[in-house]
Amino acid sequence: VTVKAKAPHNESVTITASCRGLSADFPITVISPVSSIGLSASQAIGSEYTRTLKSGNTVYSGNGVVIKAAVSLTDTGCTLDDEQKQALLSWKSSNPSVAAAEENEDGSCTVRPLKSGTVTIKASALDGSGRSASFKLLIELHPELESFSVTPSTETVARGKTVKFTAAFYPSDAYVAPFGSTALIWETDAGASISTRGVLTVP
Length: 203
Description:
By secondary structure, this protein is mostly beta strands. It is 2% helix and 47% strand. It has one helix and 16 strands. The protein has one helix at residues 82-86; strands at 11-19, 22-30, 34-45, 49-53, 58-59, 65-73, 89-93, 99-103, 109-113, 117-125, 132-139, 147-151, 162-164, 166-170, 193-194, 199-201. The chain is elongated, with a radius of gyration of 25 Å. The N and C termini lie far apart (77 Å). The model has no long low-confidence stretch (mean pLDDT 85).
């Protein structure tokens, strides 16, 4: 049987099937069609740093990439929340051997890098509207970071001067290496300031 919705959007209706005195009810919710899908992505690097990704960016570690969807509906008055709207989508990896796409409970997608290569993650609306959006990732897997050192290890800096600290990673091709000193969180308690690139300034 084919059911064609005529109820207002975001309304609950019940379909009843009957046969020889027996019947069964099937509650359904009528929602507005998807009009557009926007995707954003991020990847946790270690325990304190999260990298925001754009489509076409390169991923260097095997940590999961979380892709979230901003779903707009034709009826702007529809009261579905963000998680309910994300649940209107299905997720698919163009190359599962490079990266797997796993749907999360909140409707977002976690991409699991498996090996180096190129993959496109596609989010498609399940409502028959034909709406979809894609997010491309270049996977270039590097080994996990084991340790790092900072040079200079000690330094005397005159007032009004600056000094730049540089990080060296082991192994040298660890997944943080492409980001250089910006991969570290720099802090100082010496009454000076230090930039995200490891440049210390003494006032």
